Amino acid sequence: MFIILRAKGSPDFVAFMNYNLYNAIIVYYKLYLKERHQLDQNFLSLLREELRRLQRALGWQVKNDASCCGVTVAQCHVVLELGQRGELSLVALADALGLDTSTLSRTVENMVQEGLVERRNDPRDRRFILLTLTSRGRAVKEEIDYTYNNYFSGVLEHIPKGKHTQVLESVHLLAEAFARNGRGEVNPCCREEER
Asked: Within 10 Å of residue 20's Cβ, how many Cβ atoms?
């Protein structure tokens, strides 16, 4: 290694120090990113694996329970959203469910025909349609609530009681993160610009 002595404060000294500091930062940053990337990749792989397991378990449960309650999975989501939030416009319901209005309107039309949902014009703005559950729709919601409460009660029996609040907080944080990350965006594997 060569040591070059330069006069402190001279332009050569400042340039030399800046260049070496810059290179040291770049080398450190590359090492840091490589290590962080490796750690994050392992963590992200585990997170994705656990989410897939959860998705499969919940997917089967939702299909089984919804069909047992006499509605499709899509209808189940509509019943639960309207049951929780009351009267909603088709646009607000579509936004809450992350669907486009044309897709949702077909589901709602079937639910109106089956007597689960009532549809009426908004008296404040007749361009909007308001949706509410009928008495039959509220009965289906109660059945869904009862079925799911029993199911999740059984799930929680396998988790220590002292961790129940932590589970709820973690699920809430995860749901919020997904919502903030762009609900309804194209699957990252399918983005045109990344091919």
From this structure: 10
Q: How big is the chain, counted in residues?
A: 195
Instruction: Assess whether pLDDT exceeds 70 at residue 44.
Output: yes
**CB neighbours of residue 60 within 10 Å:** 10
Give the helix/strand (H/E) hosting 195: none
Say if residue 143's pLDDT is above 70: yes
Nearest Cα neighbor of 69 from 55, 60, 79 is: 79
Query: What is the per-residue DSSP string for 46-88?
Result: HHHHHHHHHHHHHHHHHHHHHHHTTS-HHHHHHHHHHHHH-SE
The residue-averaged pLDDT of 69-81 equals 90
- The pLDDT score that the predictor gives to residue 105 is 92
Name the pLDDT band for 4 (thresholds 50, 70, 90).
very low
Query: At a CB cut-off of 8 Å and minimum separation 6, what does 114 contact?
Result: 136
**In degrees, to the nearest 5, what angle opens at C-alpha 174 toward C-alphas 169 and 175?**
100
Q: How far apart are CA 24 and CA 30, in angstroms?
A: 10
**CA–CA separation, 133 and 140 (whole Å):** 10
Reported confidence tier of residue 36, pLDDT bands at 50, 70, 90: low
